[in-house]
Amino acid sequence: MTAASLGNAARPFTPAALAALVPAGTRLLALGEPTHGAEEFLDLRNELFRHLVVEHGYRSIAVESDCLAALTVDAYVGGADGALDTVLREGLGHGFGAYAGNRELIGWIREFNASAGAGERIRFYGADGPLEYTGAAAPGPALLRLHDFLADRLPAELLPGREELLLLCGPDERWTEPAATRDPSRSVGRTEDAVRLRLLADELSLLLAAHRPQCHEDEDALWRAELDARTATGLLRYHAATAGDGPDRLNSLMRQRDLMIADNLEAVLRREARRGPTLAFAHNRHLQREASRIPLGDHQLLWWSAGSLLESRLGDGYAFLATTFGHRAPDDHPAPDTLEGLLATLPYPRAVLDPKQLAPAVRELGGVKARVPADHTYFGLDPAALEQVDAVVFVRGIARQQGLFGGGEA
After folding, report:
1. How do strand 131-132 and strand 135-136 relate by DSSP bridges?
2. Which CATH number applies to 3-58+262-406: 3.40.47.10, 3.40.50.2300, 3.40.630.10, 3.40.1660.10?
3. What is the reported pTM?
4. Does residue 128 sit in helix, strand or coil?
5. Which of 136, 215, 252, 287 has CB atoms 3.0–4.6 Å from 32's, for a disulfide?
6. Dihedral Cα 192, 198, 204, 209, nearest 10 deg
């Protein structure tokens, strides 16, 4: 690859330059990040989203965070009373409420919505399940809300008894036992109660789907009921995978999580179909079109990412923009023969690259390697997968994140 061929593929980052590479007909625009907690990527996301709203009619954003907790954020940006600090703490999972870029995004959406018409307001969604690094939420609250929604609309004889659901669910603490993350024997996900709950959750979800026409009078309530149905069934599957003790256990957990992300994003698209496209923001590993791989000791996790699932469902309606970086303070530099090492020679602090030009240039050069991360907190881009990306954004340097995502303690 010559300096000229690399330069031909690159231009300075502007939101308009990045949006120009988004294919026509895109319904879900997925913007990935190579790590979490780096303000540089949150700022980039915010700049792009403002441009998409103003110039391209986007009216929704979904982030890698708890889909139920995000309802608090959506209410706030819609004008509900509340302190922003509380909304950030309670409405964003994974500790993401601590980051300035997320505070700025939520504040901007609320300000935009204050002067927007009812049909023009921006909605905020969580794409992830109610999952944290310490484990998954209990399925009971979502399952009971679903039951109550149906009980208000359907004959009682069609529904399982609420008392049975309460008894089978038990206290939430039996589901949220942190030790179950590492020790399958501590999980209740495959007990007789859990197996029975999965059957009842499936029956309730089927009833909701079969009687959807008569539940359509309150679209917001129906949306919440369908969200509860997806969440309850997804959590029960996840807890069952947590209780598994076979060699595929961790792969199964990753599959279950990305399936929940894909299902949530597809549901968002159905809801937003008449209002405009949606921007999704999550880790590259969740949004990429190819299967995801993560090295874990002597093993490698392998599963179909949410992006690959959505690509198979949406076809040309799905687009993926990948981001990556060069230097991370204080002393993490990419090797010169990696993709990031090559991109670090560009004259721009932030660059937009067209994969249609970048991929053939990388092939012509040969020997371009994937970056070996300095630690577990990020992943470089695979040079062999550039043709499965619609655009690349390269950030020359980022600060080291604080806490868990910087390699320290949470």
Report:
1. antiparallel
2. 3.40.1660.10
3. 0.96
4. strand
5. 287
6. -160
